[in-house]
């Protein structure tokens, strides 16, 4: 079967992908936006097309969430092709994408690819984090975005970062305030951040004011906050019953964890793009230039998948990647590309001004990266931190040999969730920097695919069909 | 573990969770239906049989695996509910079903 | 400088099995390995302990493979007892499925020749029709016209084997040295030195088991290992309850429950990228063999490079120029683990390869092929 031929494939319909696809289509590129979900928005704007119009109705999610509306509307109004419910399961370096939808698997040949695969929440491996009833803060937000669902019973939020205050405020507004917030930001972070605060004060005044407003809102609603909480553990038999920390314990039905977000690098790693360890954000990120161009000539990357900068910045880097694609494919004069990029870069600079401060202020405490020995690191294959340490002691030089020895990272999530922990634990066990230890080298299929679809025999009977 | 806000949108869809009728807001995921049905443990792992429930709800962790309309091991957080959808717990390894 | 009894270069299945055997024989052994990301055929294995397809036209290879399959249970039991890691060996016999009359005729001829070449060593096999296969395998598709069967075949978890060998080696006093590329080697008869300064290791014996790396290493020690890469891809499905009691050459069920699909072969040089068209062909063949597999989800897949000698038969050799230097090259690190740990290592420990190994020498490539 001959593949469909297009100019640009954009993978992921979050802010970066929406902006990239819309901009590219407006510049005359034959563009396809591929996304696994059945509506635009990614995770940050999930369910955005169902959200009420900001003018006459309000949502507990707040105005920042509604910023996704015009992005989705612009896509709908543009000439970009949009394929929801479509999973990219393999990308070849030559620009061929293997995609899976309800009709089966097929190939699309793109002259250029923009990965806009976004971020994921940093795994928070604490004792008991595999118990039912322990979820991420982002998960609770998604339930609110897609179904107006809120926690029933006692919920505890733990962790740190801007998102925790946003989520807490959203729950307060939604009539389901958390019973307790356990903030984990180590006190020393404040010292490190103080120096950066002065520099961010003016350029990031808007974001800072918003953040402080959220904290005030949550505290004003009477939500108790424990600061510098350490030694967190989820306790219970068969499901969460209690949350404990050094110095306290509380009965809980739901524990929501959050230690910031990290780039979702599954596809960029599988493609063999060059990655480097980001010591400020404590995560791996693909190496990309100011246009998002990567070490592979056909592939650019935009949004949080290239390093965490937030939704507004993601849309901006999506536009830059689209401008560059148009220039590379001779639809835009390079000088014109640069001219159009100027205001975008100016806005991007404003968005990025607060990042060093946030990175320092909300730097996860060491146990988030290197948990205690008895904690499950790989939830899929149920491999503990101790087993990874043993593999390291036996001589496994890095995560891939540890994976072979222990099955860590071989489950359905393909190491997405244990990858950060395995790198950090091995680095700790071997006394080497994480940058030197490396990370997994995942392979296709990026998401499961039935043998029927793989064999080109059409679609399997699937959920919802 | 979760409930629907009374102020939330009116549109709902009926699905079954473990054979029981459950009313779910339109646009929600099958994972949300499992949680709304009051299930905390939505599956047992294929490795040790340990009880698990949804964790990330954004397609990353594969903890929300469920049987949906007879298809085992579906990532239920990535499936939007439809009328009459039958959602069940995933009990460990799937059955390969050779007849 | 560290002076020891033996050095093994290559921490994959071949090198680890030999190093384990040497350490067990009481030799102070160092196992030199590359870093975390290397070609590593041992991490891309299909996991068969397979006899029935090995050694056509090379009876010595057929016997060597059979020998290894016989040694395997001893090795597996010893590894479980010593390390607690079970390589999950099962040897219930195995089948090769044929999907056309032509495939079946070719297979029959091949099996007949194997038996003829086995001479009085014997080679037990049977050609089976669909009705006989029905009792041995889960529901087959109508495309399956027949199969060959031998009682010698089986499978194991090759990663647990690798883990267990490393574990057993270190437990028996072996020294594992990863993250090394061999950039310097001094070879003298029964005196081999690698590295320099504090990192220098010296031993009277050395075994080259560096897989594809052997091609460049061997000449430094007066040996030849003209191996080339052959790419193989593998698919693994989600875990399912046990349905297969017997492995086949292309489909088997792992001890965890995943169903593995393998046996692709491509000559593409040192390229480990995955090809969706090849993956599709593998899936199609699997579904033709077992139609119900169609609904199973592939959760992992990979491509790796086999270590292929020019004629597909292993190369085992000892250096004439530098006595004490040996080499082992093959694409069957799992199948031959029993022979490597229990037989080959003993020969190295004794200082010379046994006469039965002569036909495996690279010197065979010097003989002009008869037209």
Describe the structure.
The complex is a heterotrimer of chains A (465), B (99) and C (371). By secondary structure, chain A is of the alpha/beta class. Chain A contains 17 helices and 23 strands. In chain A, the strands form 6 sheets. In chain A, strands 1, 2, 3, 4, 5, 6 and 20 form a 7-stranded mixed sheet that branches. A 5-stranded parallel sheet of chain A has the order 8-16-10-11-12. Chain A has a 3-stranded antiparallel sheet with strand order 13-14-15, with no helix packed on it. In chain A, strand 10, helix 5 and strand 11 form a beta-alpha-beta unit. By secondary structure, chain B is mainly beta. Chain B has a single domain, classed as Ubiquitin-like (UB roll). Chain B is built from 1 helix and 8 strands; from the N terminus they run E-E-E-H-E-E-E-E-E. In chain B, strands 2, 3, 4, 5, 6, 7 and 8 form a 7-stranded mixed sheet that branches. Chain C folds into 3 domains: 204 residues, FAD/NAD(P)-binding domain (3-Layer(bba) Sandwich); 58 residues, no CATH class; 81 residues, D-Amino Acid Oxidase, subunit A, domain 2 (D-Amino Acid Oxidase, Chain A, domain 2). Chain C contains 8 helices and 19 strands. In chain C, the strands form 5 sheets. Chain C has a 6-stranded mixed sheet with strand order 9-3-2-13-19-18, covered by helices on one side. Chain C has a 4-stranded mixed sheet with strand order 1-12-11-10, with no helix packed on it. Chain C is globular and about 65 Å long. Chains A and B meet through strand 8, helix 4 and strand 9 of A and strand 1, helix 1, strand 5 and strand 7 of B.
Residue ranges of chain A: pLDDT <50 for 5 or more in a row? none
Q: Mind telling me the C-alpha Rg of chain B? A: 13 Å
* Total number of domains of chain B: 1
Number of strands of chain B: 8
Put simply, the count of helices of chain B is 1
Using a beta-carbon cutoff below 8 angstroms, give the protein chain pair with the largest interface and the number of residues from each chain. A-B, 55 and 53 residues
């Amino acid at each position: 079967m001959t593949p469909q031929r297009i100019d640009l494939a954009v993978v992921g319909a979050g802010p970066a992908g929406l902006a990239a696809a819309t901009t590219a289509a407006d510049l005359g590129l034959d563009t396809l936006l591929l996304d696994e979900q059945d509506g635009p928005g990614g995770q940050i704007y999930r369910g955005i097309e169902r959200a009420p119009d900001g003018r006459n109705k309000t949502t507990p999610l707040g105005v920042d969430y509604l910023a996704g509306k015009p992005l989705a509307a612009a896509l709908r109004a543009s000439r970009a092709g949009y394929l929801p419910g479509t999973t990219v399961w393999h990308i070849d370096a030559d620009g061929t994408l293997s995609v899976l939808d309800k009709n089966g698997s097929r190939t699309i040949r793109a002259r250029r690819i923009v990965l806009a695969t976004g971020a994921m929440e940093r795994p928070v491996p604490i004792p008991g984090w595999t118990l039912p009833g322990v979820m991420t803060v982002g998960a609770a937000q998604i339930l609110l975005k897609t179904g107006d669902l809120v926690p029933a019973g006692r919920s505890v939020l733990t962790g740190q970062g801007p998102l925790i205050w946003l989520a807490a405020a959203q729950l307060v507004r939604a009539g389901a305030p958390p019973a307790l917030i356990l903030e984990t930001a180590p006190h020393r972070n404040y010292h490190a951040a103080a120096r950066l605060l002065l520099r961010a004060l003016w350029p990031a005044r808007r974001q800072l004011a918003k953040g402080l407003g959220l904290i005030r809102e949550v505290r004003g609603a009477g939500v108790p906050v424990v600061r510098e909480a350490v030694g967190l553990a989820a306790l219970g038999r068969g499901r969460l019953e209690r949350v404990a920390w050094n110095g306290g314990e509380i009965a809980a039905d739901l524990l929501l964890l959050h230690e910031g977000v990290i780039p979702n690098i599954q596809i960029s790693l599988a493609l063999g793009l060059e990655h480097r360890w980001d010591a400020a954000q404590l995560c791996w990120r693909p190496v990309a230039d100011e246009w998002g161009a990567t070490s592979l000539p056909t592939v650019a990357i935009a949004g949080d998948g290239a390093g965490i900068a937030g939704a507004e910045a993601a849309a901006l880097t999506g536009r830059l990647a689209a401008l560059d694609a148009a220039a590379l494919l001779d639809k835009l004069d390079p000088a014109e590309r640069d001219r159009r990029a100027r205001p975008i870069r100016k806005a991007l600079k404003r968005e990025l001004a607060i990042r060093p401060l946030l990175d320092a202020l909300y730097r996860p405490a060491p146990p988030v990266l290197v948990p205690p020995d008895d904690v499950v690191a790989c939830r899929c294959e149920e491999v503990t931190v101790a087993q990874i340490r043993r593999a390291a002691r036996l001589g496994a030089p890095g995560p891939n040999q540890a994976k072979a020895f222990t099955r860590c990272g071989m489950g359905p999530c393909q190491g997405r969730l244990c990858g950060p922990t395995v790198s950090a634990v091995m680095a700790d066990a071997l006394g080497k920097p994480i940058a030197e230890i490396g990370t997994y080298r995942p392979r296709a299929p990026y998401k499961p695919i039935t043998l029927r679809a793989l064999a080109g025999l059409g679609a399997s009977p699937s959920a919802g069909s | 573990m979760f409930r629907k806000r009374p102020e939330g949108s009116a549109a709902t869809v009926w699905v079954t969770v473990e054979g029981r009728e459950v009313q779910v807001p339109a646009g929600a995921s099958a994972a949300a239906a499992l949680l709304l049905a009051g299930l905390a443990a939505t599956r047992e792992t294929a490795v040790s049989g340990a009880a698990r429930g949804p964790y990330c709800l954004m397609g990353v962790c594969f903890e929300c695996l469920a049987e949906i309309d007879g298809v085992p091991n579906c990532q239920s957080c990535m499936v939007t509910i439809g009328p009459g959808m039958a959602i069940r717990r995933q009990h460990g390894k799937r059955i390969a079903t050779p007849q | 400088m560290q002076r020891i009894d033996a050095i093994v270069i290559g921490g994959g299945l071949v090198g680890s099995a030999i190093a384990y055997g040497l350490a067990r024989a009481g030799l102070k052994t160092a196992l030199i390995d590359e870093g975390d990301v290397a070609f590593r055929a041992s991490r891309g294995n299909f996991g068969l302990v397979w006899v029935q397809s090995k050694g056509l036209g090379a009876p010595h290879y057929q016997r060597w493979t059979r020998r290894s399959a016989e040694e395997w249970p001893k090795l597996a039991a010893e590894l479980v007892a010593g390390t607690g890691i079970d390589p999950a060996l099962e040897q219930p016999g195995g089948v090769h499925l044929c999907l056309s009359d032509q495939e079946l005729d070719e297979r029959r001829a091949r099996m007949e020749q194997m038996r003829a070449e086995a001479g009085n060593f014997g080679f037990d096999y049977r050609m089976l029709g669909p009705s006989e296969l029905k009792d041995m395998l889960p529901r087959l598709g109508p495309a399956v016209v027949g199969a060959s069967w031998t009682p010698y075949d089986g499978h194991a978890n090759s990663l647990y084997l690798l883990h267990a060998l490393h574990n057993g080696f270190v437990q028996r006093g072996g020294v594992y040295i990863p993250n090394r590329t061999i950039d310097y080697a001094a070879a003298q008869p029964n005196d081999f030195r690698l590295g320099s300064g504090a990192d220098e290791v010296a031993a009277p014996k050395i075994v080259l088991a560096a897989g594809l790396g052997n091609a460049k290493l061997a000449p430094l020690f007066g040996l030849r290992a003209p191996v080339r890469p052959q790419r193989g891809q593998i698919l693994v499905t989600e875990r399912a309850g046990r349905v297969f009691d017997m492995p086949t050459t292309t489909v088997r069920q792992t001890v965890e429950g995943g169903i593995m699909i393998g046996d692709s072969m491509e000559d593409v040089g040192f390229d480990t990228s995955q090809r969706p068209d090849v993956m599709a062909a593998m899936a199609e063949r699997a579904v033709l063999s077992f139609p119900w597999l169609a609904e199973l989800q592939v959760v992992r897949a990979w491509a790796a490079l086999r270590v292929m000698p020019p004629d597909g038969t292993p190369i085992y050799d000892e250096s004439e120029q530098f006595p004490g230097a040996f080499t082992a090259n093959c694409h069957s690190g799992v199948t031959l683990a029993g022979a490597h740990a229990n037989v080959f290592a003993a020969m190295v420990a004794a200082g010379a390869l046994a006469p039965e190994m002569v036909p495996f020498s690279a010197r065979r490539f010097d003989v002009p092929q008869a037209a």
